[in-house]
Amino acid sequence: MARIIMHLDMDSYFASVEQQATPSLRGIPIGVTGRPKERSIIVATSREAKRCGVKSAMPNWEALKLCPSLKLVSGKAERYIATTKRFLSILKRYTPLLEVFSIDEVFMDVTQEAQRYGGPVDMARSIKDEFREALGEYITATVGIASNKAFAKLIAKRNKPDGIGQLRDAEIPSLLAKIPVGEVCGIGRRIEGRLEHVGIHTLADLGRVSERYLKQEFGVYGLFLKEIGQGQDPTPVIP
Amino acid sequence: MYQPISEPIDAYVVYKRGASHPILRAFRWGRRRFDITSTNLVYPEREGETLFLCYAVNSGKNQFQLRLNTNRSLWTLEAIDVEG
């Protein structure tokens, strides 16, 4: 039986929490930062700021140059931690197989539970409805569904914001040629550069390379690359 | 932008069965009563041994930040958004 893995990723998390707390910040570009009036960097951006090209880790001055209407907001860790605790307590009711990947990202193995909700997409809808009720209308999440973690994360990224995306195993082979290697979580810029240097640009390219070559070049990491290139990722969800 | 206030206030609160925190219905600041039209975010904050519950709320178009000192059951109006 194929696994059903969900990757849940909160949308523009810190910025959305600030916009939820302060309705006058909604619908405008905001950047969450350390100290707005001092030299600092942007920690998180709202959807509106992203549309202006403002990115995380950008210095405040650069972000303001790019988007003069950007409103800088001082980040409040207590708010994000409390919101994470709240959404995790909701998710734990859906499955005990839940892996916290970061403050705003979670993997869930819902193979056993999905059918109880009418399938994984309906389960994701139910989770999103509960989030709206418990966290507020402005704090949304995107859910990616696939038979493994790497592709669940990838499909979530492609359905942002506030979406639900499902990738069936039968759809994976035709997709491999369209996915650049750098889009996969676990393939950083350095590895991406090395792969591109030898003409490996997409996951399909990666899948065609021999496991021996990849192991020789990347050590134990080569096996992960080979599996990803074949649309597989056997990594379990570790609670 | 929030303007700091830090004044004790009278709060009208409901302790609802099953709710994770007291529900703030209204508060009195000076001579005026503000009815809460939306509770946007509630989160805990700790200062030493004292646990505070922070409320970000709206009364109509006015935005407020309030804090409940759970040790002393004391409510404080922390800030008001002057641009809201």
How would you describe this structure to a colleague?
Chain A is 41% helix and 15% strand. Chain A has 239 residues and is of the alpha/beta class. In chain A, helix 4 crosses helix 5 and helix 10 packs antiparallel against helix 11. By secondary structure, chain B is mostly beta strands. Helix content of chain B is 0%, strand content 70%. Chain B contains no helices and 8 strands. In chain B, the strands form 2 sheets. A 5-stranded antiparallel sheet of chain B has the order 1-8-7-6-5, with no helix packed on it. The model of chain B has no long low-confidence stretch (mean pLDDT 93). The chains are: A alpha/beta (239), B mainly beta (84).
Report the β-strand fraction of chain B as a percent range.
over 45%
Number of helices of chain A: 11
Strand content of chain A: 15-25%
Q: Would you list the SSEs of chain B in sequence order as H and E? A: EEEEEEEE
Mean pLDDT of chain B: 93
Count of DSSP helices of chain B? 0
Helix/strand structural class of chain A? alpha/beta
Helix content of chain B: under 10%
Major sheet of chain A: order of its strands?
A: 5-6-1-7-8
What is the tally of beta strands of chain B?
Answer: 8
Shape verdict of chain A: globular
